[in-house]
Amino acid sequence: MPKPVSRPRITVEAYLEGEKVATERHVFINGEVVAMTGATKMHNRLTRRLARLFDDRLAGGPCEAFSTDVKVRITTLNDDRFYYPDLHVECAPLTPHEYYSERPVLILEVLSESTERGDRSDKFYAYRRLPSLMDYVLVAQDAYRVEVYRRAMDWDLEIYGEGQRFHLAALDGELSVDDIYRDILPPSSP
């Protein structure tokens, strides 16, 4: 009977050093390193727009938004993971590490065909283990659709569409779905 092939495992320190010089980003899950796929132009447009919206609302306050190149670390008794969310917000005191956050209050992912399954399952399960996390937000690329999961609501799904606004605790305010998609997707009605 053939023996199962085992992937080489690396330490967190080796992973972090490797990411400093890597030409592509990698996810770290308990010693395994997996390359991430590239993003589409639509994905990039939405991520940039969201980063601007968050920066405008957080300016001068105790919280800061970080996008695609800053990792989030999830550490539990039996689990150590690093993911690159499309956007996350961490509030003071910030994690004292230059390359990752450990206490995000909000994590946002722009959905794509290659990542949607993981964004809705493995990553969402891991993110919910962060005691600091209040909101998890998923943004569709092909429709006016924003999904919000809140710790205060036992992670139940809330869906927002065109013409609607939604509150995010990290912003201490609302965002408009239309502002997210303006000039990116055409409105569905004149």
Please provide a written account of the structure.
This protein has 190 residues and is an alpha+beta fold. The protein has one domain: tt1808, chain A, CATH 3.90.1570. It is 23% helix and 33% strand. It contains 5 helices and 13 strands. Strands 3-6-8-9-10-11 form a 6-stranded mixed β-sheet, with helices on one face. A 5-stranded mixed β-sheet has the order 2-1-5-4-7. The protein starts with 11 loop residues before the first helix and ends in a 9-residue tail after the last helix. The model has no long low-confidence stretch (mean pLDDT 92).
CATH topology: tt1808, chain A
State the CATH superfamily name: tt1808, chain A
Low-pLDDT runs of 5+ residues are: none
Structural class: alpha+beta
Task: Give the domain tally.
Answer: 1
Terminal-residue CA separation: 65 Å
Please identify the top-level CATH class. Alpha Beta
Approximate helicity band: 10-25%
Globally, the shape reads globular
* Strand coverage percent: 25-35%
**Major sheet size, sense and barrel closure:** 6 strands, mixed
Question: What is the oligomeric state here?
Answer: single chain
Radius of gyration: 17 Å
How many distinct beta strands? 13
Strand order of the largest sheet: 3-6-8-9-10-11
Q: What average pLDDT do the residues reach? A: 92
How many helices does DSSP assign? Answer: 5
Order of helices and strands: HEEHEEEEEEHHEEEEEH
CATH architecture: Alpha-Beta Complex
What features would you highlight for this structure?
23% helix; six-stranded mixed beta sheet; tt1808, chain A; single chain; 190 residues; globular; alpha+beta; five-stranded mixed beta sheet
